[in-house]
Amino acid sequence: MILIIDALNRHHHQSVLDEMFQLRARVFGERLGWDVRIENGREIDEFDALDPAYVIGLDDDCNVVSCVRALQTTGPHMLADVFADILQGEPPLRSATLWESTRFCVDTERLILSGRGPGSVSRATCELMVGSLEYARNNGIEDIVTVIDPVMNRVLKRSDNAPYDYVGETVQMGKTKAMAALLDCSEERIARVRAFAGIEGSVFVDEAALVKARLRKAARAEGLTEYFIDQLDMASSPEELAAALALIDAVLGPQKGVATESLLPVHMPDSAG
Amino acid sequence: MKPLDLGEEPDDGSGPLADVLNRICARFGLDYAAYAGVNTVDDSMHGVVNYPDDWKAHYVEHGYQLIDPTLLAASRSVGVVDWNRLRDFDSFQKVFRDAAEFGIPTTGLTIPVRGPFGDKGMFSVVSSRPDEEWYRLRSEILVAIQTEATLLHDRVMREGRSMKIMLQPTLSVRECEILQWIAAGKSQFDVGVILSISTRTVEVHLRSAREKLGALTTPQAVARAIGMRLIYPI
């Protein structure tokens, strides 16, 4: 399911945004090795300060699994500024009905870890594509210019969502290459991606229901944390400690990194002794 | 910064802005339209509306431009802001209840326009149609009024002395090339074949060129590009 966050509703979804910035840090900073600034485990740049719109994909447990950022090409945007190399010094396209999309990413690790297999990866990717194309289309936008790397370019082609053209050149950007692709927001394209991934019906989430579900989830996680701390406290051998950690891994999934890091330094000496 | 004066007209000699709003309303079957913009470079604000005079007077008298969510909240959005989305904002009830008393319909939307220099414009349209009819109309006219909103905003921004220089159209080689072939009488399809690009690519560059030149139509864009010596007359 897809959630749109912009300046008007972001105060309702601060925790979703925070998860999204962490996802971007994992994907662009760690996995893809882009030249991005990461602070405190979050990738945030100057364009995030310009009230962009975020299209965010969530899994059934309301975890952030994908995201992309939209800005108008009439105003400040990345191709006009930081990605100017791609355009080889040419002025960028500027049109009321053309949006720029950047920072498209999907949390492949979480999806594989969640045991749903590689198939769910492409579904999450396609759902985000459908969500962003439909969001743009619902706003009278006809085309999207998107800054992507060759991997994403192949993903687009493989999901029956191939760019109809590119602007500028493919240039080296940190450890990878970057290019600017053009996608139309036509009903035909949306229908093709939907058919490819078997997506039917609305992809957009009920905002009020999402807020409630995430509050419930946070409360549950807090209760569990106390239980986990007890388990770790009671562990009297390395085997029992390993079992307790495995349980935390199994239950909290991808949050384990955070959970074990914050718990381990306190409890390891006890168990070792 | 100069205060917002809803009656203010930039004196560019190309006809009053209110006429532009009237034309847009007539063309798309809308009741009223309003534009407000902030020129960050020349440090000025501009506004033009075609609301009835009594509502205009009431609005300015109560300083609603300082609390109106269709201006303040909507300016920070990327997408079109349906006025239903603004109901949660404190000032919504105050402004919209008064508007209703003056017979102004409360169904509408605001298109936020962002310019390259931090300048912002808010273009709003109002309709008295029933919901279902309104949403049908909305989806039909959205592409066209997005374009109208940007053209209107750019036109107002160009009234500013400094902005006028900064907003000189900068066309890419591709955009000039396409306009040059159009000036030579080629269709968009022909141009695509000549340049070995898709018709859609021709269209996306042409749309960008039109808007940079402040032109509603391609012939107008060609004329302006020739006038500015960006392409050669043929």
How would you characterize the overall build of this protein?
The complex is a heterodimer of chains A (273) and B (234). Chain A has helices spanning 14-31, 108-113, 117-138, 150-158, 187-197, 207-234, 238-252, 256-272; strands at 2-5, 38-39, 42-43, 53-58, 64-72, 98-106, 143-148, 165-173, 176-184. Chain A contains 8 helices and 9 strands. In chain A, the strands form 2 sheets. A 7-stranded mixed β-sheet of chain A has the order 1-4-5-6-7-9-8, sandwiched between helices. Chain A has a two-stranded antiparallel ribbon with strand order 2-3. In chain A, helix 3 packs antiparallel against helix 5 (187-197), helix 6 (207-234) runs antiparallel to helix 7 and helix 6 packs parallel to helix 8 (256-272). Chain B is of the alpha+beta class. In chain B, a hairpin with a 4-residue loop joins strand 1 (32-39) and strand 2. In chain B, helix 7 packs across helix 9 and helix 9 (199-212) packs across helix 10 (218-227). The longest helix of chain B is centred in the middle third of the chain and has 28 residues, at 131-158. Chain B is elongated. The chains are: A alpha+beta (273), B alpha+beta (234). The interface between A and B is large, with 38 and 40 residues.
Low-confidence stretches of chain B: 1-14
Provide the CATH superfamily of the largest domain in chain A.
Gcn5-related N-acetyltransferase (GNAT)
Which series of helices and strands of chain A comes N to C? EHEEEEEHHEHEEHHHH
Number of domains of chain A: 2
Q: Per CATH, what is the topology of the largest domain in chain B?
A: Beta-Lactamase
Q: How does CATH name the architecture of the largest domain in chain A?
A: 3-Layer(aba) Sandwich
| Ends apart, CA distance between termini of chain B | 46 Å
* Beginning-to-end CA distance, first to last residue of chain A: 48 Å
Rg over C-alpha atoms of chain B, rounded to the nearest angstrom? 19 Å
- Helical proportion of chain B, percent range: 40-55%
* Poorly predicted runs of chain A: 254-273
Mean model confidence by pLDDT of chain A: 86
CATH homologous superfamily heading of the largest domain in chain B: Transcription factor LuxR-like, autoinducer-binding domain
Strand order across the biggest sheet of chain A? 1-4-5-6-7-9-8
Q: Report the sheet-strand fraction of chain B.
A: 5-15%
